[in-house]
Design goal:
Elements (H helix, E strand, L loop, with lengths): L1 H13 L16 E2 L4 E4 L5 H8 L2 H7 L6 H12 L5 E6 L5 E11 L4 E8 L8 H15 L5 E7 L3 H9 L3 E12 L2 E11 H6 L14
Parallel strand pairs: 5-6
Antiparallel strand pairs: 1-2, 2-3, 3-4, 4-5, 6-8, 7-8
Helix pairs in contact: 2-4
Amino acid sequence: MIEDGAGAVDARLTGEQLEDGDAESPREVCWRGKGVAFAPLDVDDAELIQVWRSDPVAAHEIGMWPRSLSAVRERIERDRDEHDRDDFLVLLPDGTPIGHIALTDQDMVDGTAEIMLMLDPDHRGKGYGTDAVDALVDLAFGELPMHRVQAVTHTTNGGALGVLARAGFVQEGVRRSACLHRGRRYDVAVLALLRDEWQALTRPRSWDVLITDQ
């Protein structure tokens, strides 16, 4: 079913046209989930990442400070050479990029990793965050030998906590006063999804579903 759906999606992604009539360069879709697809993050995506990092909500909730375009490019290049992380653009079925998701700190011996997600402000609250997290944990447990995937966020970040809870993550504890942001100390929630908990989820896996418009 994955190959059947892939052909339809790839045709849509590569069929976009620019105003001058030239075909837009297609994204290299490497993973698909319910309602979203992943493409490897590239240095040319630095402008998108810079815009998302500059969102005032992100800066307020998680302390993600704006950075210069050159600094973002350098960071993407550096991360691309790291062997313990995978970074992806989150795409809609029509190829629109709506976020950045990553599986970081991968330890293949212990089977552990951490998840990171940043969504375009215009696409928050529409279920795409949960779809993206579901797809990434399917990759972590279905294609990689992970046993535990962790996520951390401020205890006041209700949106992120809701996304993680819907994806099956369990809050394990709180790192008290672990973050300094705007002159205040914040508690940080630690959540995780274990392999057996992922196996017990009743939702279809990424390889069982086709990408559909939402």
